[in-house]
Amino acid sequence: MDIPRPNQVGTGEPGFEVVARQDFSDTTFLLEIEHPLMANAARPGQFVIVIPDEHGERIPLTIADFDRDQGTVTLVIQAVGKTSKEMQRVCQTGSALFSVTGPMGVPSHITDAKKVICVGGGLGVAPVFPQARAHKENGAYVIGIVGFRSKDLVFWDDKFEKYCDEFIVCTDDGSRGIKGLVTKGIEAAAEKHADIDELIAIGPPIMMKACAETTRTLGIKTMVSLNPIMVDGTGMCGGCRVKVGGSIKFACVDGPDFDGHAVDFDDLMNRLQRFKEDEKVALERWTESCRRLDQSPLEPLPPDKASPRAGA
Amino acid sequence: MPIQDAMERVGNFDEVTYGYSVEDTLRECERCLYCPEPACIASCPVAIDIPGFIEKISAKDYRGAYDVISETNLLPAICGRVCPQEDQCEGVCPVGDPLKPVAIGRLERWVGDLAIAENWVNVPYIEPNGFKIGIVGSGPAGIACAAEMAKAGCDVTIYEALHLPGGVLRYGIPDFRLPNSVVDQEIENLKKLGVKIECNVLIGRLFTIQQMVDEFGYDAIFIGTGAGYPKFMGIEGESLNGVVSANELLTRCNLMHAGEFPAYDTPLHLGKRVAIIGAGNTAMDAMRVALRQGAEKVYCVYRRTKAESPARAEEIDHAEEEGVDFQWLTAPVEILDDGDGNVRAMRCIRMELGEPDDSGRRRPVPIEDSDYEFETDMVVYAIGTNANPIIGQTSKIKLNEWGYVEVDDNLATSMAGVYAGGDIVTGAATVILAMGLGRRAAHNMKAYLGIRDTNIVYAGHPTETDETLFGIAANERNFHRVRLAKDITSSTEEEIHA
Ligand SMILES: Cc1cc2nc3c(=O)[nH]c(=O)nc-3n(C[C@H](O)[C@H](O)[C@H](O)COP(=O)(O)OP(=O)(O)OC[C@H]3O[C@@H](n4cnc5c(N)ncnc54)[C@H](O)[C@@H]3O)c2cc1C
Ligand SMILES: Cc1cc2nc3c(=O)[nH]c(=O)nc-3n(C[C@H](O)[C@H](O)[C@H](O)COP(=O)(O)OP(=O)(O)OC[C@H]3O[C@@H](n4cnc5c(N)ncnc54)[C@H](O)[C@@H]3O)c2cc1C
Ligand code: SF4
Ligand code: FES
Question: What ipTM was predicted for this assembly?
Answer without folding.
Answer: 0.85
